[in-house]
Amino acid sequence: MTATEVIAALAPLVPGASYEEVPSVDFATIYVAPDRLVETCRVLRDADALQFSTIIEITAADYLPRQPRFEVVYHLLSIARRARLRLKVRVDDGATLPTVQGVWKGAGWPEREVWDMFGIVFDGHPDLRRLLMPEDWDGHPARKDYPVQIRKGAQTYEPLEVSENEFRANIERDRVKRTH
User: Which terminus of the chain has a lower count of CB atoms within 10 Å, N or C?
Assistant: First the structure.
């Protein structure tokens, strides 16, 4: 299935949406506007001519200093049509995208990964928190302006189980046991 065929099938089913074909060496690739993303994804999944029932991956690319800065990339699979589709959405720095978890439940974790690495927020995501980096990590490491040389000290998250006086008493007790 070519990008032209996908756009021809989408256009009458998503009135007012505009799509842009992207040259690609492997499989069909199209751009969609952020405000038409969820509606387009529902049609891609549900339309008999398309049947992209599986989301394979969500990732992003940072094109700093270009504006819009980011592209979020969705890889879709139509098992019934034996076709793949790459759906791209241009996103400005600080802008948000709607979550597609309502269309494909499997989109939750990949959206979390994109947020964690790039800082792109997915509106309506029920659990948007760190996935790969520690919860207290500052910044988003896949951004091109992220500082490469980072020095971060080790941090512990467990509260002390004993008070300072109990700790000193335990040390003294252990020292006495070793000397006798």
Answer: C
